[in-house]
Amino acid sequence: MQVKTILKYSAIGFAAFFLFKRPDDAAGAVKGALDSVFDAADSLAQFVSHLS
């Protein structure tokens, strides 16, 4: 259980460090992740619409 907590806080610390040291790259990473989510949702919507 303790390893999980350490990994969680390490990930949060890394994200905060990345955000403050390289905000442009962090914004690009978030935009890329959101684009991927939207693309997946669009693909799923197309799949469901072709079922009927």
Task: Describe the protein.
The chain has helices at 2-21, 23-51. The longest helix has 29 residues, at 23-51. Helix 1 crosses helix 2 (23-51). With 52 residues, it is an all-alpha fold. The protein has one domain (2-51). Helices cover 94% and strands 0% of the residues. The N and C termini lie far apart (47 Å).
What layout of secondary structure does this protein have?
Elements: H1 2-21, H2 23-51
Helix pairs in contact: 1-2
Low-confidence stretches: none
**Which sheet architecture does the biggest sheet show?**
none
Strand content: under 5%
Radius of gyration: 17 Å
What's the oligomerization state? single chain
Number of helices: 2
Domain count: the total is: 1
Number of strands: 0
Structural class: mainly alpha
Helix content: over 70%
Mean pLDDT, all residues: 92
Separation, N- and C-terminal Cα atoms: 47 Å
Run of helices and strands = HH
Structure summary:
The protein has helices at 2-21, 23-51. The protein is mainly alpha-helical and 52 residues long.
List keywords for this structure.
single chain, 52 residues, elongated
